[in-house]
Amino acid sequence: MISYIFDGSFYGLLTCIFESYERKHKQVKLCMEETFAAEMFGDAITVYTNKEKALRVWKGLNEKTDATHRQDFYTGWYADDIRAWQLMFDYALYIFDNVAGIDKNYGNDLVLGLSRIAKKVSRERHRMKAFIRFQKGANRLYHAVVNPDYNVLPLVAEHFQRRYADQPWVLYDERRHYGLYYDLKQVQEVIFEDAEANAIAVPEDVVLDDCESLYATLWKDYFNNTNVKERKNMKLHIQHVPKRYWRYLTEKQ
Amino acid sequence: MSERIREKLSILADAAKYDVSCASSGSNRKNNNGGVGDTGNGICHSYTEDGRCVSLLKILLTNFCIYDCKFCVSRKSNDVKRAAFTVEEVVSLTMNFYRRNYIEGLFLSSGIFKNADYTMERMLGIVKKLRLEEKFNGYIHLKTIPGASEALVTEAGLYADRMSINLEMPTEQGLQMVAPEKSHREVEKELNVVRNKSIEYNSERKLIKSVPKFVPAGQSTQMVIGATSENDKEILLTADRFYKDFSLKRVYYSGYIPINNDDKSLLPLIGTPPPVIRENRLYQTDWLMRFYGFSVHELVNDEHPDLDLDVDPKLSWALRNAHLFPVDINCADYKLILRVPGIGVRSAQKIVAARQFGKLHIYQIKKMGIAYNRAQHFIRCADSPFSLKNKNAAEIKQTILQEGQSKWVPKAPAQLSLF
Q1: Is B257 helix (H, G, I), strand (E, B) or coil?
Q2: Is B274 close to A251, i.e. CB distance below 8 A?
Q3: What region holds the Radical SAM core domain (chain B) (predicted)?
């Protein structure tokens, strides 16, 4: 078994797939630059991300898989986890080594594994669409702090851009220390200096719009009044809105 | 000022919550005018403590009402606080909630004040203001007021994504008992107006692309369950007929929550628990009818007029039709696999796709996300042990009930005392 050390990018992952064919390595263990601990046995090589090679692999995958599984593969990368990437790597080899259409062989652990990973990431993406709560600042900027399990902000950018086309907004991923900023023209990835990040991440520091607390209160009122007390079912409630999201939900404050 | 709007919102949200429709999907309105909002798959933004989703701002325009329907909390004779929103209030609540990503859109219903047309006109005013002045492209679910004129309903359809009007009780007799002023005929009339216009607009759009959208997310209705004495067969036959005759997108079943201590009303009294299990079984049956190729008569009929409460309707059907099983996963028709208890649409599709690449074994089937505990009694995989003795339906049911703990049955105390 040989280890490939790569940078954790999508193109990096695709380049690893390319290299494994070039070098005829069938059994490969993927490692990240930072976390690589020299293996006791076996060799390791560093794979440098190469866009050209990556795109060749991507093109090949496109030819051998259908639109759903292509999307799954792309979504899966956002799981942001070396075990997921390892599975995707093995999956790609399995696809290339077999006839077209094998991406529907759900009896295979790799094929099923990929759709599971994609489903997990996709579920978190959907939760972000649902659970993000904007606050309006005095500067008319709508802002929200999030902490998704997977790195899904890029997957929701288009959704929020379409939806809130006429209002500037910023989303800040607390865990990964970056955000998305929409300036009425385009969405950009932004890295905050600590002070700036604090300014939206720490509620006390933000100057809010005059109406903000009124609408937050009205929303809480609505949330409580639309509940049917006779049907209380906290187990179901928590199943739908897991407790780790409560911190970010206006109605659960 | 803020106290008054808070009070109004409390009263009018409280009165609207018995309408259970929560869908925000199925529309195709896009943000093409540089405004705010779009629609698509539907998003549940939150869930209340009763476990129901919150996707729309569901409110009444007013809870003043000229009718006196016995099952309704806003009925004329009920002693509750009354309130009414102004157009501005509804518009600014909707816009401000939407901009903060609290909701997918507006669900607007109303008590009937003065007369049907007067009420419908006020509601239409709100929807038009949202669409035309605020450039709001989010989801709008508008109730059709029974008795509103065809012209008003048609105009409303140009701005709403979904329209609905409630049957209230599953049968005409039931409705006559609790709401003599209403009738199913009237509901059918309104549903027909929207359905016919919808067909008209859609066929025109095939020729001229710029024909405006008309109720793009379709129509729905709702029946109250457990208030009057209809059995499940009557309820489901009504649902089936309305799905077919009016191409409804959804029929909702709302377990009756008693709001009345007047035993002359013939309705269950306060304190009677809502029939949540029955409601759940009705929804399951509804899904079987719409997505699993079951006809209503297979699930309820003269022999079985009521659904089983202890097992789901698909399992119940399979136990009654044991002669059709076991189904061989590796060669059975997709339609038959779909009928196996414990196998859903996605798993059935996966099975049919995967078996082209080799015989499927138990360990593979288990991983695909089917409920194997239930399914195992009805399927045969490549390595299923051959058994000489076929279990009968009663035995299978017993085994399944023992294996799984129903979420509806209270759990036994965790630990017994030693002494």
Answers
A1: coil
A2: no
A3: 60-200
Give how far B207 is from chain A: nearest CA, Å. Answer: 28
Q: What percent of chain A has pLDDT over 90?
A: 79
Closest by Cα among B330, B378, B376 to B353: B330
Q: Within a 13 Å sphere around the CA of B86, how many CA atoms are in the beta-carbon half? A: 5
HSE of B387 in the Cβ direction (CA atoms, 13 Å)? 13
Taking contacts as CB-CB distances below 8 angstroms, the residues of chain B near A130 are 43-46
Give the amino acid at B205: R
**pLDDT per residue as tens digits for the range B16-71:** 999 999 899 999 999 999 899 999 889 999 999 999 999 999 999 999 999 999 89
| Whole-angstrom distance, CA of residue A89 vs CA of residue A67 | 18
pLDDT reading at A232 higher than 90: yes
Cβ neighbours of B255 in A, within 8 Å: 231
What ipTM was assigned to the predicted interfaces of this complex?
0.92
Rounded to whole angstroms, how far apart are CA atoms B136 and A168?
16
For B238-269, how does the pLDDT look when each residue is reduced to its tens digit (9 = 90+)?
A: 999 999 999 999 999 999 998 877 766 678 88
Q: Which of 229-258 (B) contact A at CB < 8 A?
A: 255, 257
Whole-number pLDDT of residue A41: 60
Q: What span, in angstroms and rounded, lies between the C-alpha atoms of B330 and B370?
A: 15
Tokens of B330: 């590796």
Residue A229 contacts B, CB cutoff 8 Å: yes
The domain defined by B2-220 folds into: TIM Barrel (3.20.20)
Cα three-residue angle A189-A191-A195, rounded to 5 degrees? 140
A34 CA: distance to closest CA in chain B (Å): 34
Contacts (Cβ under 8 Å, ≥6 apart) of B11: B63, B80, B81, B82, B83
- Looking at the DSSP bridge assignments, the partners of residue B219 are B163
Residue of B43, B357, B368 with shortest CB distance to A129:
B43
Per-residue model confidence (pLDDT) at position A218? 96
Within an 8 Å CB–CB cutoff, is residue B366 touching chain A?
no
Answer whether residue A248 shows pLDDT above 80.
Answer: yes
pTM recorded for the entire structure = 0.92
Q: Which residues of chain B have pLDDT under 50?
A: none
Tokens, residue B322: 């044991």
Residue ranges of domains in chain B: 2-220, 313-403
* pLDDT score for B270: 84
In the sheet that B250-255 helps form, which strands lie side by side, from edge to edge?
B56-60, B105-109, B139-143, B162-164, B219-225, B250-255
Which residue from A165, A211, A234 is facing B49, i.e. has the nearest CB? A234
